[in-house]
């Protein structure tokens, strides 16, 4: 999936993946896609809830070698 920007939040514990995602999202235009990489297992629920509450769309998430990857489209 094509992303406009990638956030590397690997090795960071909650709430830092959300903090970094929030900051990066403010720099995107509506409709652009942010890709987030995290090793925090809690990020799966946190990012899904954050995207929904912020009017964004969680397009996809995968797990590869203990790295969770998320693609969120800015609403």
Show the helix and strand layout:
Elements: E1 5-9, H1 16-26, E2 33-38, H2 43-53, E3 57-64, E4 67-73
Lateral strand order in the biggest sheet: 1-2-4-3
**Which class in CATH terms?**
Alpha Beta
| SSE pattern | EHEHEE
The number of distinct helices, counting runs of at least 4 residues, comes to 2
> DSSP strand (E) fraction?
25-35%
Strand tally is 4
Largest sheet: 4 strands, mixed
Rg over alpha carbons: 11 Å
Low-confidence regions: none
* Fold-level CATH name: Translation Initiation Factor IF3
Structural category is alpha+beta
Termini gap: 17 Å
Supply the CATH architecture.
Answer: 2-Layer Sandwich
| Fraction in helix | 25-40%
Average pLDDT reading:
96
Domain module tally: 1
User: In CATH, what is the homologous superfamily?
Assistant: TusA-like domain
| Shape designation | globular
Structure description:
By secondary structure, the protein is an alpha+beta fold. It has a single domain, classed as Translation Initiation Factor IF3. The chain has helices at residues 16-26, 43-53; strands at 5-9, 33-38, 57-64, 67-73. The two termini are 17 Å apart.
């Amino acid at each position: 999936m094509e992303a406009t920007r990638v956030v590397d939040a690997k090795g960071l514990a909650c709430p830092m993946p959300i903090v970094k995602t929030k900051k990066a999202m403010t720099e995107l235009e509506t409709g652009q896609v942010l890709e987030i990489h995290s090793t925090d297992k809690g990020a799966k629920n946190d990012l899904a809830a954050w995207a929904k509450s912020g009017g964004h769309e969680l397009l996809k998430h995968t797990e590869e070698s203990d790295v969770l990857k998320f693609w969120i489209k800015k609403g």
